């Protein structure tokens, strides 16, 4: 499979501060790729490098098969970008900005623009300074989605949108996905959105990639919580590879177990004898919290 | 008005370095003149001769206002005649910054939700700015007293500056209510200051000629404060007039504030087109620059009309008094008095055009800081194209406004040589480019210090204002590119300095653009 974005060992320093410290990001053509990380992890910096706005200090990166720094202008004809914090020119109307950005990219579909204006319920005649944050976000989204491009780079595109509009956004991206002619890099904090839209995702922390793969892959990396009431003493269970946070209270045990170690752990439980059993699958939230919280340490 | 005190403390905290800077530094400037005037004109006779010459020199009267006496104090107060404009500028910028700017970016909303009265932010901004102006006046008075100048005159001198600040604080308060954007509010206030200056110039220059238009000065708050005539008649009633003006302006602003919605101006926001008729980087730059260009062009045309219209008075003075004419010839280094006058005004026009050039260039930095540059550069627009479309306006815009000023000057003075007057204005262009190029250089290499680009026109203004009075060394005068521009009409037209300045500007621009190519955006 060809890769729309291929970044390996990306390093970016601002003076003494290292923003990216060996980041890997691989986005296959045609997929919707989630890009996650706690605030300040380096997502926006990485995106700015992909856009040729900033130059990396180390590693290598190709975007749509080209060098994002030296071939920026040519590559930008093939992509559209929605920044996390959209600002508009105060004196231009939303409609003017959509047309302008589309034309600067190399063309947009008027019909698609009209359709998106309708679906996002945006009045394109208002001046930039009078839009709320959510409406500014819509302007940038419509400009990107109506543009005739093969790659969309969206930096927290739904921040500021109301739940209704978030749903519209999800629908539109799902339609794009079904058509399959566009690649989307989606930076987001909204787990439900990531779960609904993304084929694969990359989690970064402190400027480094900590996890990458499909959601199913990632669930494998997480732990299931088991609570059981046993018939006898659970000898050897606590020391079993893959069992964590083991707690014993009389005949009740509670522990977390890696997905890989689930089978041996259950066999052990059966050997001892199980009176009752509760198993909690790993939730997405736990997955992310575990990845994010390590940043604090 | 609840909470005004707290907001004043907030303003003082936010402006703790900039406020003392202008209030104290500007207040100390005139004291420096005392020693230099004493050195330059040690005897009474020297002063009388200098005062006679200066009082009827239209170029001097344009810059510094009318002069009616020859005492040391009067000469110093007159020579500081451009200071009220600078104080007024600082005051109106401060008021707009703490009213409309805060409201536009949403800080006022944050504060307004607390237990703060509707009028408190406006009151706090006005009180703080007027207090800073009074501090400036007090510093000036103290400094003059320290130089052994008479007490009443020193107080009047301090009051002149303080009241100029207060009056334009009031103007800023009104313009802050008119539009929803701080940029427009600032522009309107600065235009008001410009009109006020032009009216003062028109009236004062007419007064040394036939006097038919001398009433124009009385339409201008800048004219009022100059009519205090410190150390001379110490006229106090224009001070009362200015205080009344300030109170009325503040009241008008307070009433306008209650007539509008939060965040809005008095003029309702209109709907615009739903689709764009343009789609190129250049068309975008045109949209962003056209208002600025139009405003400056109109302003320059008006300035040219005044400067040209005043030309007639210069001729009258020259023909009236052969002795004076001779002295002028020596002073100006030119045989023709009118020529030297127009060469002088061309220098002023050039310096103002440089301010426009710097402002237009720094739009690039504005675009970068707001995030708009990111949006444009993430499309198929290269950095060269993006910067080039803006620089088109910051380099050719000054040519347009200088032409407007030159043509207007020449039209308003039909007795003159049209081509020579226009040429005198246009030769300023290479010097203007050097200052614009310095702005490109800072933007490209040291973007965070872009505002430092304003230091260049400030230094050139300083050199223009104090350079000859203080008889500074030639190397210091040579720092300003305007020193090297041929003095036309009348002077020797030489292409060498123009070519050199243009080459310097081109080199600085090239280095700046190369820096932009290599750096992070946003930085």
From TrEMBL, chain A:
Where does this chain mainly localize?
A: membrane
Q: Which residues form a coiled coil?
A: none
According to its record, how does it sit in the membrane? Peripheral membrane protein
One GO MF term: ATP binding
A Pfam family reported for this protein in Swiss-Prot or TrEMBL: ABC_tran
Q: Which SUPFAM superfamilies match?
A: P-loop containing nucleoside triphosphate hydrolases
For this chain, the family text in UniProt reads: Belongs to the ABC transporter superfamily.
Chain ranges of the ABC transporter domain: 5-231
Q: Which UniProt keywords apply?
A: Antibiotic resistance, ATP-binding, Nucleotide-binding, Transport
What is this protein identified as? ABC transporter ATP-binding protein
Localization per Swiss-Prot or TrEMBL: Cell membrane
Automatic annotation (TrEMBL), chain B:
Coiled-coil residue windows: none
Q: Where are the transmembrane segments?
A: 21-41, 76-99, 120-143, 155-176, 188-216, 236-257, 292-315, 340-358, 391-413, 419-444, 451-470, 495-516
Keywords attached to this Swiss-Prot or TrEMBL record, sorted alphabetically, are: Membrane, Transmembrane, Transmembrane helix
| Domain of life where this protein originates | Bacteria
Q: What is this protein called?
A: ABC transporter permease
């Amino acid at each position: 499979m060809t890769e729309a974005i291929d970044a390996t060992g990306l390093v970016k320093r601002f003076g003494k501060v290292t923003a990216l410290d060996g980041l890997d990001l691989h986005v296959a053509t045609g997929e919707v790729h989630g890009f996650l990380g706690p605030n300040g992890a380096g997502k926006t910096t990485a995106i700015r490098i992909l856009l040729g706005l900033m130059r990396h200090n180390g590693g290598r990166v190709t975007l749509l098969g080209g060098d994002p720094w030296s071939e920026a202008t040519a590559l930008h004809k093939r992509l559209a970008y929605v920044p996390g914090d959209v600002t508009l020119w105060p004196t231009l109307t939303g409609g003017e900005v959509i047309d302008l950005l589309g034309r600067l990219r190399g063309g947009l579909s008027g019909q698609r623009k009209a359709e998106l204006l309708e679906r996002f319920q945006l009045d394109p005649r208002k001046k930039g300074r009078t839009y709320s944050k959510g409406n500014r976000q819509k302007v940038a989204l419509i400009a990107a989605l109506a543009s005739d491009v093969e790659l969309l780079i969206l930096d927290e595109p739904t921040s500021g949108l109301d739940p209704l509009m978030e749903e519209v956004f999800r629908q539109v991206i799902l339609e794009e996905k079904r058509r399959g002619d566009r690649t989307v890099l989606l930076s987001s904090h909204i787990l439900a959105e990531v779960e609904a839209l993304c084929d694969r995702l990359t989690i970064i922390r402190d400027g480094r990639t900590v996890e990458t793969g499909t959601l199913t892959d990632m669930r494998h990396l997480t732990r299931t919580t088991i609570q059981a009431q046993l018939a006898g003493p659970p000898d050897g269970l606590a020391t079993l590879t893959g069992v964590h946070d083991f707690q014993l209270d009389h005949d009740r045990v509670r522990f977390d177990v890696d997905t890989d170690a689930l089978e041996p752990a259950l066999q052990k439980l059966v050997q001892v004898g199980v009176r009752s059993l509760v198993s909690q699958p790993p939730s997405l939230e736990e997955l992310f919290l575990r990845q994010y919280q390590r940043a604090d340490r | 008005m609840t909470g005004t005190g707290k907001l004043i403390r907030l303003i003082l905290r936010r402006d703790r370095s900039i406020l003392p800077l202008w209030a104290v530094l500007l207040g100390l400037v005139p004291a420096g003149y005392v020693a230099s005037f004493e050195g330059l004109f040690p005897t009474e006779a020297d002063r009388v001769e200098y005062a006679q010459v200066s009082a009827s020199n239209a170029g001097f009267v344009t810059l510094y206002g009318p002069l009616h006496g020859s005492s040391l104090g009067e000469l110093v107060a007159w020579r500081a005649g451009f200071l009220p404009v600078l104080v007024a500028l600082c005051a109106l910028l401060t008021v707009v910054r703490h009213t409309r700017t805060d409201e536009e970016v949403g800080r006022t909303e944050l504060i307004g939700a607390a237990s703060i009265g509707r009028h408190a932010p406006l009151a706090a901004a006005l009180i703080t700015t007027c207090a800073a102006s009074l501090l400036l006046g007090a510093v000036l008075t103290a400094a003059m007293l320290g130089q052994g100048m008479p007490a009443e005159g020193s107080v009047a001198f301090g009051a002149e500056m303080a009241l100029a600040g207060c009056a334009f604080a009031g103007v800023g308060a009104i313009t802050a209510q008119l539009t929803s954007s701080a940029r427009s509010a600032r522009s309107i206030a600065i235009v008001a200051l410009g009109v006020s200056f032009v009216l003062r110039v028109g009236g004062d220059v007419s007064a040394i000629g036939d006097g038919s238009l001398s009433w124009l000065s009385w339409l201008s708050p800048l004219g009022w404060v100059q009519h205090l005539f410190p150390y001379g008649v110490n006229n106090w009633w224009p001070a009362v007039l200015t205080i009344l003006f300030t109170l009325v302006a503040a009241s008008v602003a307070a009433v306008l504030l209650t007539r509008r919605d939060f965040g809005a101006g008095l003029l309702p926001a209109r709907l615009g087109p739903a689709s764009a008729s343009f789609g190129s980087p250049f068309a975008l730059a045109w949209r962003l620059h056209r208002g600025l260009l139009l405003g400056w062009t109109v302003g320059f045309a008006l300035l040219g009309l005044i400067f040209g219209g005043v030309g007639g008075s210069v001729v009258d003075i020259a023909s009236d008094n052969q002795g004076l004419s001779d002295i002028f010839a020596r002073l100006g280094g030119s045989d023709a008095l009118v020529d030297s006058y127009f060469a002088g005004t061309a220098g002023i026009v050039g310096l103002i055009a440089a301010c426009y050039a710097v402002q237009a260039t720094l739009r690039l930095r504005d675009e970068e800081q707001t995030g708009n540059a990111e949006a444009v550069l993430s499309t198929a627009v290269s950095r060269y194209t993006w910067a080039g479309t803006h620089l088109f306006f910051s380099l050719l815009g000054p040519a347009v406004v200088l032409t407007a000023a030159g043509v207007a000057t020449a039209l308003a003075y039909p007795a003159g040589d049209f081509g020579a007057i226009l040429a005198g204005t246009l030769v300023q262009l290479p010097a203007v480019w050097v200052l614009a190029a310095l702005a490109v250089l800072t933007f490209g290499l040291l973007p965070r210090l872009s505002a430092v680009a304003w230091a260049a026109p400030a230094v050139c203004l300083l050199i223009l204002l104090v350079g000859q009075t203080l008889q500074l060394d030639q190397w210091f005068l040579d720092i300003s590119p305007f020193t090297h521009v041929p003095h036309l009409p009348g002077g020797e037209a030489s292409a060498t300095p123009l070519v050199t300045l243009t080459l310097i500007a081109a080199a600085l621009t090239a280095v700046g653009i190369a820096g932009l190519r290599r750096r992070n955006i946003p930085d």
